[in-house]
Amino acid sequence: MTVYFIGAGPGAADLITVRGARTLAACRVCLYAGSLVPRELLAECPEGARLVDTAQLDLDQITAELVRAHEAGLDVARLHSGDPSVFSAVAEQMRRLDAAGVPYEVVPGVPAFAAAAAALKRELTVPTVGQTVILTRVAQRATAMPEGEDLATLGRSGALLVLHLAAGYVDRVVEELLPHYGAKCPAAVVALASRPDEVILRGTLADIADQVKAAGIVRTAVIMVGRTLGASQFRDSHLYSAERERHVC
């Protein structure tokens, strides 16, 4: 049978994709991260499905659950918050399943940065202002950053930076980006994007750290820094320009 890595979306239960919900409804086993995935989503599972909260399980235990279900002839839904393509720890699970000969598929989901941009009511790419978005994080004791991917290096690009898993290190983020973006550069933080208790902070590099600490935000947040967050005077996109040549077939 098959393991389905399903992006559960950023938080709101109704932001799972139609494909994700249909796949979830067809799986007799569901592994989910209880601390991140909304429990309302579990209502999509078929009656009598085996539900396993992986919050307290290590990689070996999670793999054992997936392999056990496969050997029993049961499809498995492996629910991950956001989208499995970024910061999801899916790669190591896939590697284990490859070694065990267990087939799997990936169902994409709405990533946290997209939900954060929606909350801010901002397009992250704006003509003539910024056309590049960098998704990254900061080095931590448990996970170092590869050479050349530190904030000081990435900041030289001037592109919009979207930082996951960094709210607890906001002072370091500001310190490393100030030389490249300047104190007046727009910055924003969205915590618990799309959830009822969502928190939105808007400011600049000069004041965003103080706002984050005052709000008590230490996790489940996205930090954004870049000019497009404050862009108001910019050229219209060529996509809908009256000067664009259009052919009617």
Automatic annotation (TrEMBL):
<protein>
    <submittedName>
        <fullName>Precorrin-4 C(11)-methyltransferase</fullName>
    </submittedName>
</protein>
<dbReference type="InterPro" id="IPR050161">
    <property type="entry name" value="Siro_Cobalamin_biosynth"/>
</dbReference>
<keyword id="KW-0489">Methyltransferase</keyword>
<keyword id="KW-0808">Transferase</keyword>
<dbReference type="InterPro" id="IPR014776">
    <property type="entry name" value="4pyrrole_Mease_sub2"/>
</dbReference>
<dbReference type="Pfam" id="PF00590">
    <property type="entry name" value="TP_methylase"/>
</dbReference>
<keyword id="KW-0169">Cobalamin biosynthesis</keyword>
<dbReference type="InterPro" id="IPR035996">
    <property type="entry name" value="4pyrrol_Methylase_sf"/>
</dbReference>
<feature type="domain" description="Tetrapyrrole methylase">
    <location>
        <begin position="2"/>
        <end position="208"/>
    </location>
</feature>
<keyword id="KW-0949">S-adenosyl-L-methionine</keyword>
<dbReference type="InterPro" id="IPR003043">
    <property type="entry name" value="Uropor_MeTrfase_CS"/>
</dbReference>
<dbReference type="InterPro" id="IPR000878">
    <property type="entry name" value="4pyrrol_Mease"/>
</dbReference>
<comment type="similarity">
    <text>Belongs to the precorrin methyltransferase family.</text>
</comment>
<comment type="pathway">
    <text>Cofactor biosynthesis; adenosylcobalamin biosynthesis.</text>
</comment>
<dbReference type="InterPro" id="IPR014777">
    <property type="entry name" value="4pyrrole_Mease_sub1"/>
</dbReference>
<dbReference type="InterPro" id="IPR006362">
    <property type="entry name" value="Cbl_synth_CobM/CibF"/>
</dbReference>
